[in-house]
């Protein structure tokens, strides 16, 4: 890699990309701690994890997976539209992505609501009285991991809203590549795909391994 | 040439406090870190002094037992999270790295400012526990299940540590990108100063290890609020899992603490022996080797917590392995000194004492890395002495060495040599009186973290407490000398030590843009002959 001259106001495309990927590493490792807990307790309480997974609604989980995968597609389309200097189209796809995020969170709310309604939540008397230790940990991890993921969906949605505003304020006729807006939307896209891929791992671990 | 030329960064930029706390200039951010960090260091020293006073005689009590628990917790949290971990990278890394690379600033100046704000926020939250809910009493490691059950405000403290971790990640990320992208023309990887190599290795550890402790501390918070039970055996969890997660970060973190320190020593030693560094590449690679192997040794903190014999043997072996790249550095420093034209000035005194004290810390680390002896020494004051020899005798002495080395560059003033040497001597003597007796007491069996002890440990503890006074006297002499120099010190020339790295080619203190002309690098960082600093 060739070193470049430094400047206070430099817009270094490769530098910004390296920075974003390094940040994504940290996100992966943040979730990594939780995946490690999952692995340890799945190994220790294989039978309990197996039976507890029956309580989750695989249909809703499937729908949510489809919603998030679609959102990744619209995100990629939004980036590609801006790269081809079509900000209007890019904004349309950004709104579609944000819409998917809202649908995902809505379905997640319904799922969590049903669980909590049935007395399945960390620290509940029902959970302590009628479930095995492994099943309690399964639900504890389920709420922690989907909760942290949900938080990332919310943050990602807010980031996309900001990006939408930046694209909307682009002066007419200006090349979005020149002003660094393409770098911004690409990095926001990378973040969104990360949120997506974490769900791609969460979904089979919680809903399908029954 | 604009009118600004010739003015230092102190004289350009917004005036007043806002010009500092909202500045994205790496030099100002470095100084912000320096002031905030020295404040926390002073608080940490006072807490340590109080602990030593409590332990002066057996049965002698100036604080109740539960207050003592909070004292060592706070001392650990402040010294580790607010001083030693951010210490060299945040202060000297921020100030010097762009200068050493010939850049105008770090890669992301605004993120750099954000990381300082996160640092101050985290520190503020930690101090808020004084007023809300009581100081944490768990020790800086926040071991479960006690940290989940303690009635003190552990929640706020772990959240503060999480924020501080985030600040550290952003600093590391910034440095890694800066080193990749902003090296001056002609500066290949192997023409970088070794301090930059140290920061590069550190940056990677900060990025790859800190998030794990982040999530672990958040889990403590979640456990306290929602009772998920991951670390609580009554629900089904396992407290030892917490220890694993904690040390997966916190052992690499000790290399976050020491690698930049070793980098600073690698700058000081060649400068004051007027000789190119011996084994440049080996020092650079050994930093990376320490970073990688240091990742795999965390289990040695849990030899007595219940682990399979295979795991214990593997962790013990890997622990011994880390000593090899460390020894490579020590031998290279010594070889650099050999036949050098040594100038025994204050920074070199700190560097030499670093090598001496860190070697003691390292060797006693091997004693604990051995499975059989660790059973005997675990949780005794031997451990306390060991990690103070590495963290304070190592990183602490390197910090003060670096401060005396770069002080003229940062403030444009020279300090007086004689008081600095006296301060160093007091500090060095006091340090050894303070911590060496703890090796002996620990070997005899005195447990750590107790507010009292059996009469048979009386002598080493009394010596240790007296040592703490000598150490603090040394610190005061150093502080007075430096503060005096800020006002009355002689104006510093651009290169007072005749050093060969790039930061000395600009004026002291540097202008806002660091270099009037962007430098072009043709020689290695320690080419004293090529730069005409030493006759060939």
Report Rg of chain B.
Answer: 23 Å
Strand content of chain B: under 5%
Which residues of chain A form runs of ≥5 with pLDDT under 50? 1-9
Mean pLDDT of chain B: 93
Number of helices of chain A: 7
Separation, N- and C-terminal Cα atoms of chain A: 48 Å
> What overall form of chain B do the CA principal axes indicate?
globular
Largest sheet of chain B: none
Task: Give the SSE string of chain A.
Answer: HHHHHHH
Most extensive interface, chain pair and sizes: A-B, 42 and 48 residues
Structural domain tally of chain B: 1
Query: In the residues of chain A, how many domains can be counted?
Result: 1
**Overall pLDDT of chain A:** 91
Structural class by SSE content of chain B? mainly alpha
**Can you summarize the main beta sheet of chain A?**
none
Overall geometric form of chain A: elongated
Quick one: how many beta strands of chain A?
0
Which oligomeric state applies?
heterodimer
The CATH C-level name of chain A is: Mainly Alpha
